[in-house]
């Protein structure tokens, strides 16, 4: 296993943006090809913070973040936009903002959100002097310049944090905000458009952000879920002590293989979603939720799922689709090159919906064969 980085600072070796290593969009015909590989070695990039991350309110149990190519790709898209910013004190344009969309359970909040916080914090302080992170109704404001340089202020509610950001904007201080959408906290109105750029982390339900999106210049970034090798790399990192101790041990290797096979079986049932695969309780709960969704789905719900799969319906706040369907950024034609920083035209990022797992795909196919779909 090649360890790309495991430190609080940016590693010297990372996937190359110029060579396209961190900007790969699968073709439509490769989606189910789980044997597709990128070489012999597994890759593992782990970002560690001794004080934790805002997503978990800086709990010490969550110091490490597993970062994938898709996460680095999202930052590369955003970084290209920030590179073109004019100084905040003379900025009159509406700054580019992004909606980062992905299936629930792939690590948008912990992995994507944490990395997209880390990178602006280490970016040029002249361009990004302040970074704000909204999560679960609270706001963390990280100051990089001025009298408060090197300090972070936590506001217990969104309105207080929003007021602080507006005060900075009135003082011609720009920055970047990250808003992690949760069930009870959708994007708030009133976030600045000039001098501040922003990222919204969300599931595909457009109602989480449509009001905010109408007020500004917004592009989509679709974050794909884990592929088979990334799941294996995640597993290897979690089991690194056993992996290290199993060198030369037939029993240790057999135990590792048995554990990995158990994880592979789970992936077939719930999909390549770390939240539900690597935690016993979450896995059991997800299995029950999928069984419920499959057995209690009415004709109307089946029709909605079918329309989603064929791109004829929008995601909504239902209790069925998010258990059975995943969203993926794909290229239908091998000759098409996706431009991550394109506008809302035909070259902009797009996505498609697919069954979340092998077992769910079989169940949906059976429902279609029986005339239920």
Automatic annotation (TrEMBL):
Cited Pfam families: RHS_N (PF20445), RHSP (PF07999)
Protein's organism: Trypanosoma rangeli
Protein name per UniProt: Retrotransposon hot spot (RHS) protein
Domain Retrotransposon hot spot protein N-terminal residues, every copy: 10-88
Retrotransposon hot spot protein,C-terminal domain ranges (all copies): 99-334
Residue ranges of the TM segments: none
InterPro entries: Crinkler_effector (IPR052980), RHS_C (IPR046836), RHS_N (IPR046835), Trypano_RHS (IPR006518)
């Amino acid at each position: 296993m090649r360890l790309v980085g495991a430190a609080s600072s940016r590693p010297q070796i990372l996937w190359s943006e110029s060579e396209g290593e961190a900007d790969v969009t699968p073709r439509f015909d490769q989606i189910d090809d789980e044997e597709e590989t990128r070489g012999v070695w597994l890759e593992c990039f782990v970002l560690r913070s001794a004080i934790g991350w805002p997503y978990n309110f800086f709990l010490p149990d969550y110091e490490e973040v597993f970062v994938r190519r898709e996460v680095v790709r999202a930052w590369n898209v955003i970084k290209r936009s920030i590179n073109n910013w004019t100084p905040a004190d003379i900025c009159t344009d509406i700054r580019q903002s992004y909606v980062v969309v992905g299936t629930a359970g792939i690590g948008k909040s912990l992995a994507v959100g944490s990395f997209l916080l880390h990178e602006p914090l280490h970016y040029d302080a002249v361009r990004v002097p302040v970074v704000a992170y909204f999560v679960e109704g609270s706001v963390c404001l990280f100051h990089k310049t001025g009298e408060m340089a090197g300090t972070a202020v936590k506001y217990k509610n969104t309105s207080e944090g929003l007021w602080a950001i507006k005060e900075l904007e009135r003082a011609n201080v720009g920055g970047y905000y990250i808003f992690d959408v949760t069930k009870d906290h959708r994007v708030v109105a009133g976030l600045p458009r000039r001098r501040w750029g922003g990222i919204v982390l969300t599931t595909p339900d457009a109602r989480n952000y449509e009001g905010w999106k109408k007020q500004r210049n917004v592009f989509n970034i679709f974050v794909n879920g884990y592929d088979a090798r990334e799941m294996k790399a995640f597993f290897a990192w979690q089991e690194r002590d056993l992996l290290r101790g199993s060198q030369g041990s037939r029993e240790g290797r057999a135990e590792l293989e048995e554990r990995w096979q158990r994880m592979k079986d789970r992936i077939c049932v719930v999909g390549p979603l770390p939240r539900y695969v690597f935690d016993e309780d979450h896995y059991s709960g997800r299995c029950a939720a999928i069984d419920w969704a499959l057995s209690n789905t009415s004709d109307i719900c089946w029709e909605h799922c079918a329309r989603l799969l064929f791109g004829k319906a929008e995601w909504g706040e239902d209790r069925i689709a998010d258990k059975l369907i995943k969203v993926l950024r794909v290229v239908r034609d091998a000759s098409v090159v996706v431009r991550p920083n394109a506008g809302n035209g035909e070259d902009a990022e797009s996505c498609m919906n697919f069954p979340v797992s092998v077992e769910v795909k079989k169940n949906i196919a059976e429902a279609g064969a029986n005339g239920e779909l």
